[in-house]
Structures
1.
Amino acid sequence: MPIKIPAELPARKALESENIFVMTEDRASAQDIRPLEIAIVNLMPTKVATETQFLRLLGNSPIQVNATLLRTAEHESRNAPEGHLERFYSTFAEARERNFDGLIVTGAPVEHLPFDEVDYWDELAEIMEYAQKKVYSTLYICWAAQAALNYFYNISKRSLPRKISGVFPHTATKPNLELFRGFDDVFYAPHSRHTEILEDDIRKIPGLEILATSPDAGVAILENREYRQVFMTGHFEYDRDTLAKEYERDVLKGLNPDIPRNYFPGDDPGLIPTMSWKAHAHLFFSNWLNYYVYQNSPFSIGAIQPNEVPDALQNSRELTADSVRGNVK
């Protein structure tokens, strides 16, 4: 939350130069306050664990948040407890007339499939179109980030020779951006994926901007800031043991996985993993909630205006069957 000070106070310039959020008394007096409406489209099979991870991060903020859990109707979840989805989740069809201040779309373990072979792809496309019209800011995570970049900008995901798994150092290309307020010069975040988005492909698209990169994990965070989309290829939301559980699962499947990097002390899977990303995870989500949603979403949620992709990008959004099936190279 901002600190409220007189506009003429000498400290104002110093604080703003240090990327500290200050609000003048005039702006504070005119600011209306209400709870934020945030929806989470949970595409992960581990529904309970994933919803807990995101709700923990959204809850660590002085901003009141009303959270709505959404699921796709076209996919049958085999891992959620019986009755859990019916009791706590709405389908997209049930929520599509509502406006939301923010929307989070999680990752999903379907990287090996071309996008249009995912059984809920058509419904996800509807959700992404809906987000452009009735959501102020949308945060796409991991596979969902790749899906949205493909859908809106026709950027292909590329297969990796080995799965990226571990906790990697990152630097912000724009450290003074509101999203990185309070961040250290180097921050860590988990990654777990078989595919990537190339930096060169992103830089060809007008309006997309790379915000954070890793020497080992590649592009980590990017946005189309004018159109209120944020994409993250990693997993700030992961618990301490999430990568360990994924590693054990892959070992049992006989996949001969690499030990997650920078994770187990001494690369010993028998030891408790080191958690080196928790503080920055909370900062990232608090910053997104505050600066990208709370400070900009209109007080009347019905007044949210559509986010139109520029005309220059319309051709890339008209995906033919061939272009979608060719999305993994």
2.
Amino acid sequence: MSSPLKKVILIFLLFLVCLYISLPIKKPSQIKINNEVKLGLDLAGGSQLVFEADTSKISSDKKNSSLESLRNVIERRVNLFGISEPNVQTSTFQGKDRIIVELPGINDTKEAQALIGRTAQLVFSEVVEIPGKDGATPSATLKSTNLTGADLAESAVTFDQNTGKPAVSLTFTKEGGDKFATITGNNVGKPVAIVLDNDVVSAPNVQEKIVGGTAQITGSFTLDEAKNLSIQLNAGALPVPVKVVEERTIGATLGAESISKSIIAGLVGLGMVLLFMIITYGKLGLVADIGLIVFGVITLALYKLIPVVLTLPGIAGFLLSVGMAVDSNILIFERFKEEKDRHSTISDALEVSFGRAWDSIRDANIATLLTAFILANPLDWNFLHTSGPVRGFAITLALGIAISLFTGIIVSRNLLRLFVKERKVKQ
């Protein structure tokens, strides 16, 4: 096992790296790190879009399921678009069914609005030639096939090998791949049109029967257009037609003054915790305070790297994890008070204290992590509530618990091993 000194040196190097990431200083262009922590809608403001769903052609017994499906599709599109922690919810008022979409940090919503509301209906069509009468030029018409966007398993942005232009690759389901093979087999030497929202975006000639269940949409796409098309196809078509009935910008609900006061209050509270640990436990408390500072720096660095969108519930999750980090040290130090009278040296008493306090620390943190998992609901279980702010709280809490275990057990333990002298306990 490596010595405590080597471990403390590694911890110090990790602290310096995280401190560099955390500080709001300008980073070199090669380092892709945000200088500022991303803030949620309640802290930074953003935009709100209200869509009204046309459910007139849907039976009453299927309306709720259709609205829920619509909400899920819109939420997937917003997430794929890259907007962090959106809040998408349904609302029914005076017989009108609406979807409310809140986009934190987004001021120009035109592109997002077009992306959310577009239907993205994809159809593969055969090109049928119609002979011209009396020597007239033959014309062509499209005959839709049974291969549609519903047969897609995945789409992704790629580049055409011949032109180098952006394109969209398609991977079909097994059933869709069989349909595609049949269509291409029946149209060797003829074009097959790829039709998106009634517009022909590509009509390549089929050279041979294509098996394997893959295809490519080419055209005069920009990279952003190809990305948006891929997002629409991955998210699926909207099950219910929608229209925008309201669009507005939302200011931060807390305001700049309230945020600054909250930061001051947090610093005062943290200072009181640090002071309490020193007054109560002396040098041991000072070591715990160092571990708590390391905890804060690592946490802020991870918030920027992941990145985590910080909301007011997210801040609450962070503060709760601070309490859990201090609680671990208190359990160890209180155990040490009992063990130091049973062992001949301070170091032996500390090692035993860490070992015997671990069971309580482990059980408390596992229970908290399980609660955070349920609140985050990463598997999207229908019987659990899914909310952006609640998930933000759960994510920051779980992240804080994981880091507090590292700082409480690894950092504090090795600092104490390094600085506690091998001396006999006074009897």
3.
Amino acid sequence: MEATVIDLQRVGGEAELLAYDLDGIVEKAYFITTAPVRGFERIVKGKNPVFAVNAVMRICGICHAAHGIASAEAIEDAMGVSPPANGRYLRETIGLLNKIQSHLMHLVMIIPDLIPEPERMKYIVATLNILNKINDVLTKIGGSPTHPPYLVIGGVSRVPDEKTLVNLLEELDKLIEEYIVLRRSFKTSISSSDIYGQLRFKKHKPKYLASHMFYGDKYSIRIDKIRVVRYEDIHEDLPSKARENTSMIALYDGQIVETGPRARLNKYYDYSDDSLWGLQEARLIEIELFLKRTRELLEKVEVGESGHSKVLVYRSGKGTGVFEAPRGTLIHTVELDDNGRISKYKIIVPTMFNIPLIEQAAQGFPSKHVDIVPRIYDPCIPCSTHIIRLDSR
């Protein structure tokens, strides 16, 4: 077998795919993350929890709000704080808009694989146009299109006024119609694509992990069944090149599981497409569902009512926050000392679950186009980077 190292492009972060080829088909593959360690779990240690929410959002420029929500949920669990109704509605809305952002950006990344020029640019521009409108909606609700500052412990710090809410509902109606037109046109244009055919043909049916369709629920999964191991612990005879991996791996009940759009739809929406294309189809379905859910939530917001708890009591405690991030189930756990400062923090991200699935799905795929396999899984590499290796010096 011939080994090839593919420098992956159009993915979230730095990674390579070590693929072993036999007669044009991948026999074995290793997904190698090469991003430097971020160290956010150490950065927040000893800090005020308010700082932690803002800090962990900076883990990623893509799933920013997802980390902020999971962090706030964990800290509220430790403090015994519960957001008011407006805070819950608007926080979920911020999370949904973040997922839509991510799914649209991912669509832009895979359009070049599926649609030739000159039609390609038409779809990229149309997708970016919808993304810009989503960014505007998130700015009005969360205070910024990324790392939304209105997301705080206890809920959200600002509630939109009546005029803003009316305008947002009208904008969402238009966005839903615009997106449906784009999705139908996109699916027609890719129907004759060779890569689309390969993704449809390749079946890959893993076990799934999801906690909620729209938000997150720590009680619908067993946190105690999640185990984080080193990358080399799931492989035998690991090539030296693959030992450069900087990510940890998460297992559920000792098994490799897929988390993300397909897992959510499989569990909560009666969706069962087990082809590799089924991953992308799930994202396309979720965008429409999330837009409609966002509109539904904004209709529930009570103008003039508070969006956050007024009092935070700093105390010792332990807490867990679970949120369905764009790529799947995201878990933050925190421990607070007697002064209410963070003594321990841990983050388990969706890509830590999905890395082994990327490698399994690449097996049997045509070597010529195998770089599409990691891209269709949409890994978020900065989030998953947890290891730094030091030499003996």
4.
Amino acid sequence: MESRRDRAAVTTEPCNTAATTLPGKGRCVMAVTNDMLTDQRVRRAATTLVEAGWTVTVVGRSLQPAGSPQYRRADACEPFAVSRMRLLFRRKAFFYAEYNLRLLLRLLRMPVDLIYSNDTDTLPACYLAARLRRKRLFFDAHEMFPEVPELVGRKAVKRVWEAIEARLFPRLTACCTVSQSIADAYAERYGVKMSVVRNLPPRRHDAADAEPDAGSERRERVLLYQGAVNVGRGVDWLIDALEWLPQCRLVVAGDGDELQLMIAKAAIKPYKDRIEFLGRMLPGDLAAVTRRADLGVCLLKRMGLSYYYALPNRVGDFVQARVPLLMTDFPELRRVAERYGIGTLVPEDCTEPRRLAQAVADALRHWDAMPADERRQLFDRAGEELCWESERPRLLTAIDSATPPIVRPS
């Protein structure tokens, strides 16, 4: 059991208690290794479960002082409870070991009917708790965890996570992931059948009424990158390309391992005044920034299959804001571009500054030349389909099939 010191290191922010006590299907505990502040996927899934009759508590970790105004603001209007653990370790093996041990101890004593594991890094504790208590387990893979760039170059660590997946994935009875490409890859590797529940935002009807700005009449065009500022996300390419885009301003909204490096890189550029870093933003604040963009960028470097098969949530955010996209020609991004016509694809080797700048300029000219009615029709269709409302039934159907983990001989 956790000590008194452990219990004191947990911050819990109750939200809308009326919503979390609806009679219905039972109690669900969702596990995530982040602090939930900007995790829109988990917040949407938790809200969906509440609406379906579950009482939901999300267990994550704290990255700010207890009682942080940002936490309170983010959680205030949510219909589920959030509990954050303050951990001694913040990175690498010691963090994952501490997190899973602490999570396991909590799951063994919390009232729960369904354990919902988000990503492979929460699965060891969730699987073991579900098996020991014979509780239903659901797994949600937001990415191919061993294939993220941070692990691709660390072969020993990558093999550990692959071994965990190889042992646990075939025992899962219900699971989903964010793209068909990832579902197919895991089916081939482990024979596990994953439902596809894409990481898409709710439908925004107000954006459909907004007229696109006459970009050619404005002094600056806004290029927006939003999301984690991590390796292989193309922020450095955009900073360099801005030299040949004097009419453009680059806005970077997000935090991550590479943020300080990108800030330092931008600071030495003669055009540094046209590069703006907004840092980590709450979803509502980010939506207001997104609506003001002329072009949303989703550029990725092939650093493992997780990036190659990704359908980043910012794609849906840009679609709902009626902002056209510039995307790397990877499988899931190509599907969106070809089906809906709301984005321009660039080859994955389009990283040289002049070449990327030309691609940006061509994309802006393309959208400036498009008649407003044609543009509206494209985004109306995409917005109706690329939204959480289309994914919600798939998630609930997948969860309904969850049972306790399969016990197989070792």
